[in-house]
């Protein structure tokens, strides 16, 4: 016997799963997914798998696929509390595609996964709208996804999001520690704020310790706390691809959980040390607010938050002017923040933060 009877459908709905709501959510998101379409995408929304024509990759001499997956952590709790759901999609895409670009890969396509206690079509569509708009900015296609209703596991207004993306890079153009040389210059690219990392710390400081509300106006921030905490993650993939086209870049680091030093160290070989001068920039006010309200030590702050730097590139000394010009053309604030030097193999930390931050 095939098919599903009306009785069975009713029983499933009684268990908390609304198939019709899921179908409505798909209809609402189709317009936004369509905006991300690249010529290589085959088929449409609703299939069991997203299809991407790989034949155009033959233009590359030795194409290597890169893949990355991530979520947005406890920032979703802020979106849920404020009932604002489109910006969380930007966060998801930024966290995924910017991990791809640091190896030199162009993001090609992405899929998403949304788990929720109850499918509210308009809410799901808002999340996907944000994902789609961010994919357009990143230049990658949103080829599919999954929305799962988990009654009893998640509350009706709770959800979590995750995503995965695939990119491509020439084999001989892959960036990494093997390319970094003494004398390379570190170029910092500004973050838009906390991005999507350190929200467990921020929530503990503001809500548990200080008892602040999301609608609290914070003069130092020029907006409410909730508005600040929902500022979307900056997406760097397009900026970095332009940078790679215009300048000799040896390595890049996406500054996420763990802070600037820990993430930059991942692309620095044992024979190199990068000295970063804090005095070359003033972090946005949110970082000082977290520190002051929570009485967080400087080492703890820097080991958790990006401190105003979302991406770092290590470039050849004679490529600095071209690199800064390329980023300026993209409207991305960037500056020289340090330099690489030779050290005895394995001698101490690979990244050292020095000096004090410039005044705001």
TrEMBL record:
GO terms for cellular component: cytosol. Pathway: Purine metabolism; IMP biosynthesis via de novo pathway; 5-amino-1-(5-phospho-D-ribosyl)imidazole from N(2)-formyl-N(1)-(5-phospho-D-ribosyl)glycinamide: step 2/2. It is found in: Cytoplasm. Keywords: ATP-binding, Cytoplasm, Ligase, Nucleotide-binding, Purine biosynthesis. Coiled coil: none annotated. Residues 181-342 form the PurM-like C-terminal domain. It is an enzyme of class 6 (ligase). It catalyses: 2-formamido-N(1)-(5-O-phospho-beta-D-ribosyl)acetamidine + ATP = 5-amino-1-(5-phospho-beta-D-ribosyl)imidazole + ADP + phosphate + H(+). Gene3D superfamilies: PurM-like C-terminal domain, PurM-like, N-terminal domain. GO terms for molecular function: ATP binding; phosphoribosylamine-glycine ligase activity; phosphoribosylformylglycinamidine cyclo-ligase activity. One of its GO terms (biological process) is adenine biosynthetic process. NCBIfam families: purM. This is Phosphoribosylformylglycinamidine cyclo-ligase.
């Amino acid at each position: 016997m095939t098919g599903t009877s009306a009785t069975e459908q009713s029983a499933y709905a009684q268990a908390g799963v609304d198939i019709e709501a899921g179908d409505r959510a798909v209809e609402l998101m189709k317009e936004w997914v369509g905006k991300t379409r690249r010529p290589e995408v085959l088929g449409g929304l609703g299939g069991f798998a997203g299809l991407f024509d790989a034949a155009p990759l033959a233009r590359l001499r030795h194409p290597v696929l890169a893949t990355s997956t991530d979520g947005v952590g406890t920032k979703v709790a802020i979106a849920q509390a404020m009932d604002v759901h489109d910006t969380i999609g930007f966060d998801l895409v930024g966290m995924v595609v910017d991990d791809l670009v640091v190896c030199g890969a162009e993001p090609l396509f992405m899929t998403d996964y949304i788990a929720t206690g109850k499918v509210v079509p308009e809410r799901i569509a808002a999340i996907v709208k944000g994902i789609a708009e961010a994919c357009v900015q990143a230049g990658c296609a949103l080829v599919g996804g999954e929305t799962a209703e988990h009654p009893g596991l998640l509350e009706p207004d709770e959800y979590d999001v995750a995503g995965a993306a695939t990119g491509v890079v020439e084999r001989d153009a892959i960036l990494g520690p093997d390319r970094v040389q003494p004398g390379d210059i570190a170029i910092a690219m500004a973050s838009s704020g906390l991005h999507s990392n350190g929200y467990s710390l921020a929530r503990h400081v503001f809500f548990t310790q200080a008892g602040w509300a999301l609608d609290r106006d914070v003069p130092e921030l020029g907006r409410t706390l909730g508005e600040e905490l929902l500022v979307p993650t900056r997406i760097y993939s397009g900026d970095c691809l332009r940078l790679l086209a215009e300048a000799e870049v040896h390595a890049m680091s996406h500054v996420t959980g763990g802070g600037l030093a820990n993430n930059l160290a991942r692309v620095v070989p044992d024979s190199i040390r990068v000295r970063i001068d804090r005095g070359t920039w003033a972090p946005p006010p949110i970082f000082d607010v977290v520190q002051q309200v929570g009485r967080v030590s400087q080492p703890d702050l820097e080991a958790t938050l990006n401190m105003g730097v979302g991406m770092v590139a290590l470039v050849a000394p004679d490529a600095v002017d071209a690199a800064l010009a390329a980023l300026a053309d993209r409207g991305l604030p960037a500056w020289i923040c340090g330099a690489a030097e030779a050290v005895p193999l394995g001698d101490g930390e690979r990244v050292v933060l020095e000096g004090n931050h410039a005044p705001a």
